Amino acid sequence: MTDTITTPTSGSEGSTAAFAPHVSDAFGYEKLLDDQQREIIARVRAFLQEQVAPIADDAWERAEFPHHLIPGFGSLGIVGLTYPEFTDRVQSRLFSGFLNLEIARVDPSINTFFGVHSGLALSSIYLCGSPEQRERWIPSMLDFSAVGAFGLTEPDHGSDVAGGLATTARREGDTWVLNGAKRWIGNGTFADLVVIWARDEETDKVLGFVVEKGTPGFSATAITGKIALRTVQNADIVLDDVRIPAANKLENANSFRDTARVLKVTRGGVAWGSVGLQMGAYEKAREYVLQRQQFGRPLAKFQLVQEHLATMLANITTSLGLVVRLAQLQDAGEDTDDQAALAKSTATLAMRDTVARAREVMGGNGIVLEHGVARFFADAEAIYSYEGTKEVNQLIVGRAITGMGAFV
User: Nearest 5°: CA angle at 132, between 130 and 138?
Assistant: First the structure.
């Protein structure tokens, strides 16, 4: 890993002065980053505070994605920093984890958009694509000229998708024909590239494909009525005799084991995002109780409120310790599936408790967007479930403990 970084400037450059640690990082884990890494984080933090934070609640309430932010994200130069072939600013998984944390601390919806694009979609192409396929698609993804999505989950198959994947792929000469449906596909309504996982009708193996925007037979409809991550444009996707060239079949995506390689990497990113969400909720709640007066004194002066704050900070600190160690193992090439699963399930379970306590100390005001916690409280429910439910992740850990799989 090289730490020589030349970061593109952004519209927020003038605001990236000192790197100030968050009050929610009680053990100073951010000190593990070097000066150049902290400079990048400072730039991202400024962009989030100036461009994202002011519109986050409104976009969430309207369930609309702020497309005007995409060029700004592209100018930050924060995509693909762990892939040496595509950047001279190679970074560690530890750094990319702190980057996820930083975005989620302001807006979990925007972090999900970022994670789907730079994690699930780009990682599928990087890990499972040929060198030619990487060169074909990844450069345009680095600056968001092309936005990516990842199509695995289906209307009838979520936790059991490894064995139950129903979307099919049929080879016809130099063409693959895809049929089926996908559900909960983040960025799906506007993505330029969608990685679709489908079962080969001939071999029954799970294969990966890239479907490009505008391909006949591909349609995406936004899922409405959500109570979490409302800004994220999740889609129901229908594939009706979608014909793509053989060159769009990811060369090294030939079984669900290859899908799992992608999920192993991104599951850790979700754990980092859940820590950032906890930090955002805690910081808003702390600010509120320091200012809110009841019975002639600040709420922060009451013992029960302080117990909530202490427990929230403990949740954040233990979760952060888990994901930091996971990232270090990833950087050393020593991480395992069960470690990623343990980090994700543990951090998201702690997240649920943290956001509930943050809402509770704010009383009735905790359910109103303007006071800052309600959006985190609601968004936590989606993050708790995606990239593997708690039950599925704990079964992965249980299999590692016992040597016996308990999946049906």
Answer: 90
> Does this model's pTM top 0.85?
yes
CA pair distance 138, 134, nearest whole angstrom = 5
Q: Report the pLDDT value the prediction gives residue 174, as an integer from 0 to 100.
A: 96
Q: Write down the residue that tokens 């975005």 correspond to.
A: 103
DSSP class of residue 9? P
Per CATH, the number for 256-402 is: 1.20.140.10
Average pLDDT over residues 333-344: 94
User: In this predicted structure, what is the pLDDT of residue 316?
Assistant: 98
Fold topology of 13-142:
Butyryl-Coa Dehydrogenase, subunit A; domain 1 (1.10.540)
Dihedral sign of CA atoms 50, 56, 62, 65 in order = positive
Contact 177, 170 (CB under 8 A): yes
* Residue 4: both structure tokens together: 């020589």
Domain covering 148-248 in this structure, CATH number: 2.40.110.10
Q: How far is CA 45 from each of CA 65, 224, 323, rounded to the nearest angstrom?
A: 20, 30, 20
Give, in degrees to the nearest 5, the angle at Cα 178 between 257 and 185: 65
Residue 17 identity: A
Which position has the token pair 């395992």? Answer: 336
What SS3 state is found at 373?
Answer: coil
